[in-house]
Design goal:
The protein is an all-alpha fold and 215 residues long. It is built from ten helices and no strands.
Length: 215
């Protein structure tokens, strides 16, 4: 069990480490609003990883069949949501956020934005599935209660990762000029928009050119 807990901790870190829409969002939130906002965003991603970990342990076969059957629809809807969130990132006003950061505190909007982006990104759940398969963790021949420490260790790994990342970014935050942060917002937002368009394009290509019907 101890080995599985350690593996779960590593899965949480490995699932959070890749540079994707969530990581870009955490960087933007930390630099424009501070560590609390960035960490709150990371916690949204942590919840997503935990949800996907539960699916990987208890409903992996069903989830894989569902994603295979509805892959095109998932790509299209997910692509639209990610692109919209990217547009919101690129058009946000970091100057207003910096001025009101200390007064208004951290909004749950940061958490919910990351949660929505993570749940709408099909790549995120595929990463979790791959990691669980790589580390050889499954629910076979185990009682349900014995899986709980593994799930918690995944959350702990993701939490530690985002705490470290946001702490490091916040350390260098004061060195950035406001104009630099504005361009970071625009560039990171544009990258997320491109990711969303790629997902959307993949789904539309399958439907239009390969003749695969939406399910």
């Amino acid at each position: 069990m101890l080995i599985d807990i350690l593996k779960g901790f590593l899965i949480g870190i490995c699932a959070s480490a890749p540079i994707g829409p969530i990581a870009i969002l955490v960087v933007q939130k930390t630099l424009s609003k501070g560590q609390k906002a960035g960490f709150m965003t990371g916690m949204g991603a942590c919840i997503v990883d935990t949800i996907f970990a539960v699916i990987a342990l208890f409903a992996l076969t069903f989830a894989q069949e569902f994603m295979t059957s509805h892959k095109e629809l998932i790509f299209i809807i997910g692509g639209v949501i990610v692109a919209i969130l990217g547009w919101s990132m690129s058009t946000s006003d970091p100057f207003r956020k910096l001025k009101s950061d200390n007064a208004s505190g951290v909004s749950v909007k940061d958490f919910l934005q990351a949660l929505m982006m993570g749940l709408s990104n099909p790549g995120a759940i595929l990463v979790i599935f791959t990691l669980f398969a790589f580390f050889g963790i499954g629910s076979q021949d185990k009682e349900d209660w014995s899986i709980l420490p593994v799930i918690l260790s995944v959350s702990a790994g993701a939490t530690i990762w985002w705490l470290g990342v946001t702490s490091l970014l916040n350390h260098f935050r004061k060195r950035f000029k406001l104009r630099t942060i504005l361009w970071i917002n625009r560039i990171t937002g544009a990258i997320v928009i491109i990711i969303g368009i790629v997902l959307l394009g993949e789904g539309l290509y399958r439907v239009i050119f390969q003749g695969i019907p939406l399910k």
